[in-house]
Amino acid sequence: MPEAFDCLIIGGGPAGLTAAIYLARFHLSVTVADDGNSRARQIPCTHNHAGFPEGIAGADLLDRMREQGRKYGARLLEGHVDELVTGPLGFVSRGREVTGPARTVLLATGVTNRRPDVPEPLHAEALRTGRLRYCPVCDGYEVTDHDVAVIGCGARAVTEAIFLRSYTDRVTLILDQDDELTEQDADRINKVGIRLARGRPSEFTLGANQIHFAVGQRQMAFDTVYPSLGSEIHSELAASLGAAMTDEGCIKVDAHQRTNVPGLYAAGDVVVGLDQISHAMGEAGVAATAIRNDLAAVRPILR
Ligand SMILES: Cc1cc2nc3c(=O)[nH]c(=O)nc-3n(C[C@H](O)[C@H](O)[C@H](O)COP(=O)(O)OP(=O)(O)OC[C@H]3O[C@@H](n4cnc5c(N)ncnc54)[C@H](O)[C@@H]3O)c2cc1C
User: Fold this and answer.
1) Is 125 within 8 Å of 211 (Cβ atoms)?
2) Which residues lie with the beta carbon below 6 Å from any ligand 1 atom?
3) Tens-place pLDDT, residues 123-140
């Protein structure tokens, strides 16, 4: 086995790449393994990420961060990590290639939004043109006074519809036929004038400016649709090492982004908290600094 390196980061989204930039600038050896499905890559143009008055496309932001990481010596590997094991010299990951041993690991593996039943090309075009959006916190501003629908299930969809009501008075909540709506939630949406429809949207098409679909026999059209169907949380590797999780499957960490497994840290959307680029970057800075200090506590980092 080669000499152990300081940190293996799994996940090359805003969290993973921010941590790589920090760690490389701490003069630590860092490798990032990423299989290229960052949620940020789907962002046509973010307007709420600070420092970009004209906005920036998610893919461009990631390219800048990769360039910055490489500039300071971070190694970027492409490929999916299937397995992560601990050994006497540290952590070893297996995927397209074996990587390790690493003295520490940062999991920045993110989540994936569950999608409505929309063919991929149409989904991509709807996302590109803002007729399909996944994050009201990110881009509710862009649908100010527009005709908006939330399609989803349960309390999460109700909360999202009420959040969007602060941007427009034309909000429709579309719940599955058998989806339970508590009296309290029914009262909440009535109070703020949110329309309710029941049924599973299907037969999606894109018109000149709107997105169209059928709900049962009804044809509906909106300027923008927000799916609120939950997410797949990519915390399998943490679970395989016995890390503590929330009921939803997010990784539990302390104030320094440490998990309960020695040497294992986590940051970004895969950790409980606000799913935002700024938050992922903030957690990554905290994690990288804790990794640096924890390594220095074992073996002084001297130039
Ligand atoms: C359509 C859309 C618009 C958005 N708009 C905004 C916005 O305007 N502003 C904002 O702040 N946020 C926005 N977000 C949210 C933002 O993209 C996320 O909060 C952010 O990307 C989280 O960063 P992350 O690094 O935690 O996870 P991600 O960016 O999802 O990165 C995780 C990475 O880990 C990789 N990975 C996972 N498992 C493995 C494995 N086993 N092996 C190798 N690689 C793995 C994935 O491929 C991915 O590249 C938006 C999201 C979407 C979907």
Assistant:
1) no
2) 10-16, 33-40, 42-43, 46, 48-49, 80-81, 108-110, 113, 127, 134-135, 138-139, 234, 268-269, 275-278, 280
3) 999 999 999 999 999 999
